[in-house]
Structures are given as structure tokens and as C-alpha cells.
Amino acid sequence: MPKKPLNATQEPRSLTVRRPALRVRELAEAVLLVFGATPLPQHSNPQRHLGRIVIDDQTWLVLADSPNRTTNAMTLHHALALLDKFDGGWDRVVVLGWRFHPAIGAAIAALNDDRLDVRAIPYDLQHRIVQCRARQALADAVSFDSQYLALKHVTRTQFTACAPELLIIGLDNYILLSPQAIELDHLNRANLNAVLTRKPLSLIEYWAVDPAYDGATFNPVWHSYCGNASRNRHAQWVQTQAVLSLPPHAGERRVRVRAVDIFRQQAEVEIRVAAPCTAWRRE
Known about the structure:
The structure is a single chain. The protein is built from six helices and 13 strands. By secondary structure, it is α+β, with helices and mostly antiparallel strands. The protein folds into two domains: 1-145, 3-Layer(aba) Sandwich (Trna Endonuclease, Chain: A, domain 1), CATH 3.40.1350; 148-175 and 200-283, Sandwich (Immunoglobulin-like). The strands form three sheets. The protein has a five-stranded mixed β-sheet. Strand 3 (58-64), helix 2 and strand 4 (92-97) form a beta-alpha-beta unit. It is globular and about 65 Å long. Residues 1-20 have low confidence and may be disordered.
């Protein structure tokens, strides 16, 4: 599938503009259109979450999962079953998910089905769809990545007034959503599947943190790469926690984290952290 450019479009400074909220079915259809797929007829697609797209003379079925669900192994089995359920001469099925079960990488590796492709929906796409009704403009700017980076926790504290802030960020999981797209021989693929199952964070070669992301330029002030952790007993891996001492900053921080894996693939995640003495943690 042709690579779309990484999303560098600035996120709106405020998400408080009151626009009509999208229902789940409307959102699913909008996601399909941004991805470039044509929704299937409503009589066979009552939830409006299935679409069709032709890429390189292949016909792909596209399933846009709900933001209220976690995409897991059952979702993948269901998607593959749809290839046989719906007529249309499908070559592949693409699953678009908002968030993923921690074991999704192992599930994808275990299936090892070339007909399956899994992509991550940008975390802010729902807001951007509401703000921008021009679907084609979004389609040109949005990237549905085949990598997914999950954070475990982000804490921001300040012990005394005017003192530096302490920002702590922990990595939780790194998932290759399309490992079958990486060209490997049989032995190395088996090794990759084992890593995806046991220690997926070891696939990260480098990761960095920008604690004051402006929406356009990524300016990291902290990074970790394989072999640079002198106090880490697993020096061949990156550190999984970043500790930053930062000048005081009024209001929330817009924090962006970028990771690059050993295959030179890139994943990013962004969160907004409220004033010091509060914490964000993945449920």
C-alpha cells in the first residue's frame, strides 16, 4: 500500500469549539472516506463500518473499528471471516483501529496471514473530522500507520513554586501492525515473532520526547537509543522511562513522543498533560 506522508498538520489549539458530535456509525463512515475507501451499501453494512478500496489492481475490504472498542485477536478473526462472507473477490482486508490490545502484535504474528493488514487510526482524527468537513483535505494529510506506540504513564510534578518541573514518561508497548510486510527469511521471521510476543519494546532503536510540541516541528530535548544507557543492565535496549527536568511552564503541556524501530519505521504518540501535581496513566 502506498505510504502516505507522516501527519505534520497542526492540531487546533483549542478543541472546545462546539460542533455536533459524530455518532459512532457516522464516525466509522468518515474514517473510511478519509482512508480512501467507499462504504459498502447500507443493506449489507448497517453499522456503516465496512468499505471497499482498490490498490494496485487488488480489491481490499476495509473495516473501521469503533473508538469504544479495543482492537484485539477476535477483531482480526472477524475481519478475515468477512472476506468469505461478502461477495466481491476480495484480495485483502484492512482493519483500522483506534487502540489495540497489548497482545495484538503476537496475535497478528500467530495468524501470519498475508490477506490481513492492520493500521492505526490517528488519535486525533475524530476531532479533525469534526473541525474539517473537507474529507479530501484530510485524506491528503492523514497517515494510517502500521506501527503503534503505547505509553504506560506520564507524570508532571513541581515540588516548590518556581522550581523546575519533573516530567516522567514510561513506555508500555510497541506494536508492529503489519509484520508480514517486512521482508525476512524463515528463521528471522520466527525470531521476530518471538520478540513481538515476549519483549516488543526491544524492537525500538531510538525514541525521543518533545515536551513543548508546537504542532509542526518536533524538537526533542530527551532521547534514548540502543547502547547509550550506561546504567541500564540491558544496554542493548533503549531505556523504557524518560525523566526530564524542565523550566516551569504555565498551563498544560503538549507532549509528543517519537520512536524509531530497528526497521527504520516510525511511530508517534501525543498527549496533553495538565498543570504540575497531576498525572496521566493508561487505563
